[in-house]
Amino acid sequence: MARNVVISGGGTGIGLATARVFAADGDRVLLLGRRAEVLERAEVPGALTHAADLSDPHAVHGVARHVADTFGTVDVLVNAAGGAMGPAPATGAEDRLEAVARTWTAAFGRNTLTAALLTEAVRDRLASPGGRVLFLSSVAALRGSGSGAYGASKAALHPYAFDLARELGPRGVTVNVVAPGTVEDTGFPGAGTDPARRDRPAAETSTGRAGTPGDIAQTLHWLASPGARHITAQVIRVDGGAEQER
Predict the structure, then answer these.
(1) Where are the membrane-spanning stretches (predicted)?
(2) Is 150 annotated in the active site?
Protein backbone atom coordinates (compact mmCIF):
# COMPACT_ATOMS: atom_id res chain seq x y z
CA MET A 1 0.00 0.00 0.00
CA ALA A 2 1.33 3.44 -0.93
CA ARG A 3 2.34 5.64 1.98
CA ASN A 4 2.28 9.40 2.42
CA VAL A 5 5.86 10.65 2.81
CA VAL A 6 6.87 14.22 3.71
CA ILE A 7 10.53 15.14 3.18
CA SER A 8 12.05 18.47 4.15
CA GLY A 9 15.13 19.54 2.23
CA GLY A 10 13.82 17.32 -0.54
CA GLY A 11 15.17 19.32 -3.46
CA THR A 12 18.87 18.50 -3.14
CA GLY A 13 21.43 16.08 -1.75
CA ILE A 14 20.32 13.42 0.72
CA GLY A 15 16.74 14.69 0.82
CA LEU A 16 16.41 14.36 -2.95
CA ALA A 17 17.99 10.89 -2.99
CA THR A 18 15.59 9.84 -0.23
CA ALA A 19 12.59 11.17 -2.14
CA ARG A 20 13.59 9.14 -5.18
CA VAL A 21 13.85 5.94 -3.15
CA PHE A 22 10.40 6.36 -1.64
CA ALA A 23 8.87 7.37 -4.97
CA ALA A 24 10.39 4.32 -6.65
CA ASP A 25 8.63 2.22 -4.02
CA GLY A 26 5.29 3.67 -5.14
CA ASP A 27 4.83 6.05 -2.21
CA ARG A 28 3.24 9.50 -2.46
CA VAL A 29 5.96 12.08 -1.77
CA LEU A 30 5.73 15.74 -0.78
CA LEU A 31 8.98 17.71 -1.07
CA LEU A 32 9.49 20.73 1.19
CA GLY A 33 12.22 23.36 0.90
CA ARG A 34 12.96 27.07 0.99
CA ARG A 35 13.43 27.55 -2.74
CA ALA A 36 10.54 26.80 -5.09
CA GLU A 37 12.78 26.75 -8.15
CA VAL A 38 15.00 24.04 -6.63
CA LEU A 39 12.01 21.89 -5.73
CA GLU A 40 10.56 22.28 -9.20
CA ARG A 41 13.82 21.05 -10.76
CA ALA A 42 13.88 17.93 -8.60
CA GLU A 43 13.41 14.86 -10.75
CA VAL A 44 11.17 12.74 -8.54
CA PRO A 45 8.38 11.00 -10.45
CA GLY A 46 4.96 11.99 -9.18
CA ALA A 47 6.26 14.08 -6.28
CA LEU A 48 4.41 17.17 -5.06
CA THR A 49 6.29 20.26 -3.87
CA HIS A 50 5.67 23.09 -1.42
CA ALA A 51 8.12 25.92 -0.76
CA ALA A 52 8.36 27.39 2.74
CA ASP A 53 10.89 28.65 5.28
CA LEU A 54 10.67 25.92 7.90
CA SER A 55 12.36 28.10 10.52
CA ASP A 56 9.37 30.47 10.42
CA PRO A 57 6.45 29.32 12.62
CA HIS A 58 3.91 31.19 10.47
CA ALA A 59 5.19 29.47 7.32
CA VAL A 60 5.12 26.08 9.04
CA HIS A 61 1.46 26.62 9.96
CA GLY A 62 0.91 26.95 6.21
CA VAL A 63 2.83 23.71 5.60
CA ALA A 64 0.64 21.92 8.16
CA ARG A 65 -2.51 23.08 6.38
CA HIS A 66 -1.07 22.00 3.04
CA VAL A 67 -0.18 18.57 4.40
CA ALA A 68 -3.67 18.20 5.86
CA ASP A 69 -5.31 19.14 2.57
CA THR A 70 -2.96 17.02 0.44
CA PHE A 71 -2.43 13.88 2.51
CA GLY A 72 -4.44 13.96 5.69
CA THR A 73 -2.31 11.29 7.38
CA VAL A 74 1.49 11.27 7.30
CA ASP A 75 3.08 7.82 7.29
CA VAL A 76 6.71 8.94 7.09
CA LEU A 77 8.29 12.27 8.01
CA VAL A 78 11.93 12.77 6.99
CA ASN A 79 13.61 15.86 8.40
CA ALA A 80 16.49 16.36 5.96
CA ALA A 81 16.53 20.16 5.76
CA GLY A 82 19.67 21.92 6.98
CA GLY A 83 23.38 21.70 6.34
CA ALA A 84 26.78 23.05 7.23
CA MET A 85 27.72 26.66 6.90
CA GLY A 86 30.75 28.81 7.51
CA PRO A 87 30.94 31.60 10.07
CA ALA A 88 28.48 34.40 9.47
CA PRO A 89 30.24 37.33 7.74
CA ALA A 90 31.05 40.26 9.94
CA THR A 91 29.15 43.48 9.38
CA GLY A 92 30.59 46.90 10.11
CA ALA A 93 31.99 47.27 13.61
CA GLU A 94 30.47 44.03 14.90
CA ASP A 95 32.71 42.39 17.49
CA ARG A 96 33.71 38.74 17.64
CA LEU A 97 31.05 37.70 20.13
CA GLU A 98 28.32 39.24 18.02
CA ALA A 99 29.58 37.22 15.04
CA VAL A 100 29.62 34.06 17.17
CA ALA A 101 26.06 34.72 18.28
CA ARG A 102 24.87 35.09 14.69
CA THR A 103 26.72 31.97 13.55
CA TRP A 104 25.27 29.81 16.31
CA THR A 105 21.79 31.27 15.94
CA ALA A 106 21.87 30.59 12.20
CA ALA A 107 23.08 27.00 12.69
CA PHE A 108 20.37 26.15 15.20
CA GLY A 109 17.73 27.85 13.09
CA ARG A 110 18.73 25.90 10.00
CA ASN A 111 19.40 22.48 11.51
CA THR A 112 17.37 22.25 14.72
CA LEU A 113 14.44 24.64 14.61
CA THR A 114 13.35 23.56 11.13
CA ALA A 115 13.06 19.93 12.25
CA ALA A 116 11.34 20.74 15.54
CA LEU A 117 8.75 23.06 14.00
CA LEU A 118 7.85 20.72 11.16
CA THR A 119 7.63 17.68 13.43
CA GLU A 120 5.44 19.45 15.97
CA ALA A 121 3.23 20.78 13.17
CA VAL A 122 2.39 17.33 11.82
CA ARG A 123 2.84 15.01 14.83
CA ASP A 124 -0.91 14.66 15.36
CA ARG A 125 -1.24 13.52 11.74
CA LEU A 126 1.29 10.71 12.01
CA ALA A 127 -0.18 7.32 11.22
CA SER A 128 -1.05 5.41 14.40
CA PRO A 129 0.23 2.75 14.41
CA GLY A 130 3.00 2.64 11.83
CA GLY A 131 4.13 6.27 11.66
CA ARG A 132 7.83 6.98 11.22
CA VAL A 133 9.77 10.13 12.14
CA LEU A 134 13.36 10.36 10.88
CA PHE A 135 15.95 13.03 11.58
CA LEU A 136 19.13 13.66 9.60
CA SER A 137 21.99 14.40 11.97
CA SER A 138 25.75 14.08 11.39
CA VAL A 139 28.74 12.37 12.94
CA ALA A 140 29.81 15.94 13.70
CA ALA A 141 27.20 15.77 16.47
CA LEU A 142 29.20 12.96 18.07
CA ARG A 143 32.80 14.06 17.60
CA GLY A 144 32.92 17.50 16.00
CA SER A 145 34.15 18.53 12.59
CA GLY A 146 35.79 21.90 13.10
CA SER A 147 32.55 23.85 13.47
CA GLY A 148 31.12 23.78 16.98
CA ALA A 149 27.88 25.41 15.94
CA TYR A 150 27.06 22.87 13.24
CA GLY A 151 27.80 19.82 15.38
CA ALA A 152 25.90 21.25 18.33
CA SER A 153 22.85 22.06 16.22
CA LYS A 154 22.76 18.48 14.95
CA ALA A 155 23.41 17.01 18.41
CA ALA A 156 20.36 18.87 19.72
CA LEU A 157 18.19 16.64 17.54
CA HIS A 158 19.22 13.52 19.47
CA PRO A 159 17.53 14.19 22.84
CA TYR A 160 14.52 15.62 21.00
CA ALA A 161 14.22 12.35 19.07
CA PHE A 162 14.57 10.31 22.26
CA ASP A 163 11.80 12.31 23.95
CA LEU A 164 9.54 11.94 20.91
CA ALA A 165 10.17 8.20 20.81
CA ARG A 166 8.91 7.87 24.37
CA GLU A 167 5.91 10.12 23.74
CA LEU A 168 4.85 8.60 20.43
CA GLY A 169 5.77 4.98 21.13
CA PRO A 170 2.38 4.12 22.65
CA ARG A 171 0.82 5.19 19.33
CA GLY A 172 3.02 2.74 17.42
CA VAL A 173 5.19 5.55 15.99
CA THR A 174 8.96 5.15 15.87
CA VAL A 175 11.52 7.96 15.92
CA ASN A 176 15.12 7.54 14.81
CA VAL A 177 18.17 9.58 13.83
CA VAL A 178 20.63 8.90 11.01
CA ALA A 179 24.10 10.42 11.41
CA PRO A 180 26.08 10.37 8.15
CA GLY A 181 29.83 10.79 7.90
CA THR A 182 31.40 12.49 4.90
CA VAL A 183 28.95 12.31 1.99
CA GLU A 184 29.82 13.23 -1.58
CA ASP A 185 27.71 15.69 -3.60
CA THR A 186 26.29 17.49 -0.58
CA GLY A 187 27.14 20.56 1.46
CA PHE A 188 28.06 18.50 4.50
CA PRO A 189 31.49 18.64 6.13
CA GLY A 190 34.29 17.29 3.97
CA ALA A 191 32.25 17.41 0.76
CA GLY A 192 33.06 19.70 -2.12
CA THR A 193 36.47 20.68 -0.72
CA ASP A 194 39.91 20.28 -2.28
CA PRO A 195 40.80 16.66 -3.16
CA ALA A 196 43.38 16.24 -0.39
CA ARG A 197 40.97 17.27 2.34
CA ARG A 198 38.06 15.37 0.78
CA ASP A 199 40.04 12.15 0.43
CA ARG A 200 41.39 12.17 4.00
CA PRO A 201 38.09 11.31 5.73
CA ALA A 202 37.38 8.67 3.06
CA ALA A 203 40.74 7.04 3.76
CA GLU A 204 39.80 6.79 7.44
CA THR A 205 36.77 4.61 6.69
CA SER A 206 36.80 0.83 6.73
CA THR A 207 35.27 0.85 3.27
CA GLY A 208 37.88 3.20 1.79
CA ARG A 209 35.35 5.64 0.37
CA ALA A 210 33.08 8.50 1.30
CA GLY A 211 29.36 7.91 1.52
CA THR A 212 26.85 8.80 -1.18
CA PRO A 213 23.40 10.36 -0.80
CA GLY A 214 22.02 7.00 -1.89
CA ASP A 215 23.70 5.24 1.05
CA ILE A 216 21.89 7.51 3.48
CA ALA A 217 18.62 7.36 1.56
CA GLN A 218 18.55 3.56 1.69
CA THR A 219 19.12 3.62 5.45
CA LEU A 220 16.27 6.08 5.96
CA HIS A 221 14.04 3.98 3.71
CA TRP A 222 14.79 0.84 5.72
CA LEU A 223 14.09 2.59 9.04
CA ALA A 224 10.68 3.49 7.63
CA SER A 225 9.97 -0.11 6.63
CA PRO A 226 7.86 -2.67 8.54
CA GLY A 227 11.06 -4.60 9.22
CA ALA A 228 12.29 -1.75 11.46
CA ARG A 229 9.09 -1.39 13.46
CA HIS A 230 10.80 -2.29 16.78
CA ILE A 231 13.73 0.10 16.26
CA THR A 232 13.22 3.47 17.90
CA ALA A 233 15.18 6.12 19.85
CA GLN A 234 18.38 5.16 18.00
CA VAL A 235 21.18 7.15 16.37
CA ILE A 236 22.39 5.16 13.36
CA ARG A 237 25.86 6.12 12.12
CA VAL A 238 26.35 5.70 8.37
CA ASP A 239 30.02 6.57 8.00
CA GLY A 240 31.81 3.47 6.70
CA GLY A 241 33.34 2.86 10.14
CA ALA A 242 35.32 6.10 10.05
CA GLU A 243 37.62 6.61 13.01
CA GLN A 244 37.27 10.37 13.06
CA GLU A 245 35.64 13.23 11.20
CA ARG A 246 37.71 16.22 10.08
Answers:
(1) none
(2) yes
